[in-house]
Design a protein that fits this description.
It is a single chain. The chain has one domain. The chain is built from twelve helices and four strands, in the order E-H-H-H-E-E-H-H-H-H-H-H-H-H-H-E. The strands form two sheets. Strands 1-4 form a two-stranded antiparallel ribbon. The protein has a two-stranded antiparallel sheet with strand order 2-3.
């Protein structure tokens, strides 16, 4: 028995979402105002783009919240979204290359990054598939189709290339399969195959090896592959306890590459100090806690897995980004959800949050735990 209670969505996640959007607006403007004035003669250019993406995302959340049916369990939507994601990922390779990568689909001046949509579609697909095949998941034949789909999407994203996103997606999918009831022996075999798969692509690209060696020995190449991580740590360290104050960062002035995207957390640390960085970290931990709580109370196994997977998509990505910014891991090119500049990431993350909030409105007395 499932009961839909409108407006009973989790208020903590809703507040966290609005808070992170506001922080994102502030930091996007702070990190891009000078560059936008020089390039577009409009200091608000990037901020306006971010606001447009956030507005579209909020409209999407409102629409998702109003849907009474568990649409995320509808096979037509689940498989339609999956096919669309795979098609768009493949379409990237016939699009013009930007910055030597094929990560975007472009149409009428609008760019979209399909890997962001793939995160949502894979989570919904696995939640639906695991629920339908729950009694047969311990058999190898039942694993062939989901493993093929995950491998295909991971391979397409890896070829863009986007190693960090591919690794993130694989980790979350593997965790969902484990929680869905797949045997550890089967997961061990798949994990070994995945290790060989990722190792092949890791050693195939010399720049990835250089990133790792730069992380392990930053003093050996301070102006090369260690430059960005070193500048990131310099930005965070120079912020001290309270920061140098909003807008006063020096690292954002072309010293730290990708300051408004992958390394926006470093500029936040420089301008708001340790207090600011810890506050954002705590906010993401609260987000993960509330998402896992929604998952545990969801009325159906499919809803539980969907809420869990979508929570991890946002939460793990945030922790991965923060780890890289603080110099605790090699660079992976993963943005900070809801804060970093990027409309594709912003809209897709908002859609994921909308589904989580929709699930939080569903109550049931007879719940089956994952």
């Amino acid at each position: 028995m499932e009961i839909f209670k409108p407006m009973s969505f989790d208020k903590a996640i809703a507040f966290i979402t609005l808070f992170l959007l506001a922080v994102g607006f502030i930091m996007v403007f702070s990190t891009t105002a000078v560059a936008a004035r020089q390039k577009y003669n409009q200091p608000l250019y990037f901020l306006i783009q971010q606001i447009i993406g956030a507005a579209a995302g909020l409209v999407l959340v409102a629409l998702i919240l109003s849907v009474r049916r568990a649409f995320y369990q509808n096979p037509f939507l689940v498989y339609g979204l999956l096919v669309l994601s795979i098609f768009l990922l493949a379409l990237c390779f016939v699009m013009p290359t930007l910055a030597r990568v094929n990560r975007w689909v472009m149409f009428s001046g609008i760019r979209f990054q399909p890997s962001e949509l793939a995160k949502i579609s894979l989570v919904l697909f696995l939640a639906h598939y695991i629920d339908k095949k729950r009694d047969r998941l311990q058999e190898w034949p039942s694993l062939i189709f989901p493993v093929f789909i995950v491998t295909l999407c991971t391979l397409l994203i890896m070829k863009e290339p986007d190693f960090g996103t591919a690794l993130l997606i694989f980790f979350i999918c593997a965790l969902m399969l484990y929680l869905g009831g797949v045997r550890l022996l089967h997961l061990g075999v798949l994990g070994l195959a995945a290790s060989i798969f990722f190792a092949f692509f890791l050693f195939k690209a010399s720049y990835r090896i250089e990133r790792i060696t730069g992380f392990m020995s930053p003093e050996k190449d301070p102006l090369g592959h260690s430059y960005q991580p070193n500048q990131s740590k310099l930005a965070v360290g120079s912020g001290g306890l309270l920061g140098v104050s909003l807008g006063e960062s020096t690292q954002k002035l072309d010293f730290l590459p990708s300051a408004h995207t992958d390394y926006i957390y470093a500029i936040l640390g420089e301008e708001f100090g340790l207090l600011g960085t810890l506050s954002i970290l705590v906010v993401f931990f609260i987000f993960i806690w509330r998402g896992l709580s929604i998952s545990s109370r969801a009325p159906t196994p499919a809803s539980q897995l969907a809420a869990l997977g979508l929570t991890l998509v946002i939460g793990v990505q945030a922790l991965l980004n923060i780890t890289v910014v603080l110099g605790l891991g090699p660079a992976k090119g993963v943005p900070l959800p809801l804060v970093s500049f990027g409309r594709s990431s912003l809209i897709c993350n908002m859609a994921a949050i909308g589904i989580i909030l929709n699930i939080s409105q569903r109550k049931g007395n007879d719940r089956k735990k994952i």
